[in-house]
Amino acid sequence: MILLASSSEEKLSQWEQAVSSCAPVFCSTNMDSVKQELVRIKPKILLLEYELPQLNGPDGISGLMKLNPEVRIIILTSLISDEIEWNLFKTGIRGCCRSDIETEQLKTIVESVQRGELWLRRALSWHLLNELVAITREKNKMKQAISDLLANLTRREYEIAALVGNGDSNKQIARRLDITESTVKAHLSEVFRKLEIADRLKLALMVKGSIPHHVSSGVAH
């Protein structure tokens, strides 16, 4: 189902004409109706006029997504800046275009979003690239920081940390390394101290992506 939301009956009529062949269409002319229909009919696509009264920008859009986390939102607007549009994509919208777009083009956008694609203007591509670069750098920094902490462990502590990351219990670790459970616990206490963490769940999360799989699964008995 597709939900169209605009305060303009004329726009709703144009949009409905454009997308009626894609899925059953419902229309809303105010925010209260939009919220009700998101819950009642659970549309897969929401074509939302950005200038709809009481929408309240990105915060309002985030609120709509909470009502129906599965909905894919396409924003239609008269004109917004690249920065605002990019912030809207960061809230989770799937597409953005002018509200006076040609009907065939709007249909193409809806079909693309139905397939799980984003409809992103070429002018915003550099925002996406910068975001990906920043995320990659941050992940690399985190991995390096974790690697530096793990480098402080002794060989035995490292082996035990790897097995914790693999999901092994203290008893299983003791059996695999041919040591006592009390020895495992003693080593883990030292690991927690060195890594400045308090429990094995955090340890597992730390080592999961930092210790190669062959190390965690191939520790000698």
Structure in words:
Keywords: DNA-binding. This is Two-component system, NarL family, response regulator. InterPro entries: CheY-like_superfamily (IPR011006), PH_domain (IPR001849), Sig_transdc_resp-reg_C-effctor (IPR016032), Sig_transdc_resp-reg_receiver (IPR001789), Tscrpt_reg_LuxR_C (IPR000792), WalR-like (IPR039420). Residues 1-24 form the PH domain. The chain is of the alpha/beta class and 221 residues long. It has 2 domains: 2-120, Rossmann fold (3-Layer(aba) Sandwich); 128-217, Orthogonal Bundle (Arc Repressor Mutant, subunit A). 58% of the residues lie in helices and 10% in strands. The chain has a 5-stranded parallel sheet, with helices on both faces.
Task: Lay out the secondary structure.
Blueprint: E1 2-5, H1 9-19, E2 25-28, H2 31-40, E3 45-49, H3 57-67, E4 72-77, H4 82-91, E5 95-98, H5 103-114, H6 125-150, H7 155-165, H8 170-177, H9 181-195, H10 200-208, H11 213-217
Parallel strand pairs: 1-2, 1-3, 3-4, 4-5
Helix pairs in contact: 1-5, 7-9, 7-10, 8-9
Protein name: Two-component system, NarL family, response regulator
Domain Response regulatory: 1-114
Pfam families: GerE (PF00196)
